């Protein structure tokens, strides 16, 4: 019997196009023969305006890799969703949505309420993994080393004139320059600035505040950037470690998505003890936020001191054939189709657990 997979992609987020690319790669892998399990793919697409679309539109978006252009009432909102009638025809959902409204626990909540098995983290793991402040609190509790940071609320940035200078004074005293200013709930480096002066700090805070109520400011480190893929539920496994190199000031949006700007090296040329340390931290990070299924955990390796600092966890990492997550597993002996297969089995295993 074929298992019916609800591939849920697109999403009301700045990483919409990345999601389409990830979904294409996963759909292709699911359609491949050679697995013991043969799958039947049901596509469900969420447009940029948040409207949901069934197989015909979803298929067209996947084929053309062009986001749907909606004008106002282009599709059904979730509440009046004909697509949801498919619920009874789907065995496992595979939400491959990146960023807010998909990687953050919202979609995971809908699927949980509908009592549907799905790939990846549940509500808590997704939400903790998306919010950089909550994530860092969970990591600190687990004893994971990370950079110094301060949580900031938008109201402090957009308040009357005497609050902002005091906030900047505190940031300068606690973290100094350079530092990073980020919206707490985003990805793909959107809204992130590296700042070196009071002027830049004020501008960066104002910019980040336009994306999110919750902001985070971090001390900057000079370090190599290394990533580790994790797979599994209660006993997760870590992959080999990969490294990203680039010439730009930091791993910003353009560097991430312009071909040829960043190079991946797998496995990363690291001392064995450091690789082991990173793998152990990656598994601890997954457990600290209660992630499940898959996660990519990103680190800073300060070569001069030998220090490893955790940067973040991504609970629905980029999943194209050239993305870090599947490539790390490929280098660890698990092919792309085998990885997709494993994730579906992990989703079913989790759904069978007593709550
Ligand atoms: P996102 O979730 O958008 O990927 P990150 O927190 O990973 O956000 O930051 C994006 C990039 O910015 C990192 O990959 C790194 O290049 C740079 N960066 C972020 N924080 C720091 C920091 N504290 N020190 C040095 N570089 C940083
Ligand atoms: Mg991220
Ligand atoms: Mg990142």
Q: Could you explain the architecture of this structure?
A:
This protein has helices spanning 16-31, 55-64, 106-113, 123-130, 132-141, 154-157, 163-174, 198-209, 253-257, 272-289, 324-331, 336-352, and strands at residues 3-10, 39-46, 52-53, 92-95, 149-153, 179-183, 193-195, 214-219, 224-232, 237-246, 262-265, 293-302, 307-314. The protein is α+β, with helices and mostly antiparallel strands and 355 residues long. It is built from twelve helices and 13 strands. The chain has a five-stranded antiparallel sheet with strand order 11-10-9-12-13. It has a four-stranded mixed sheet with strand order 3-2-1-4, sandwiched between helices. The protein is globular. Helix 4 packs across helix 5. It has three domains: 3-118, Rossmann fold (3-Layer(aba) Sandwich); 130-145 and 222-335, D-amino Acid Aminotransferase, Chain A, domain 1; 149-219, 2-Layer Sandwich (Dna Ligase, domain 1). The two termini are 27 Å apart. The structure holds adenosine-5'-diphosphate and magnesium ion (2 copies). One magnesium ion (MG) is lined by residues 187, 312, 314.
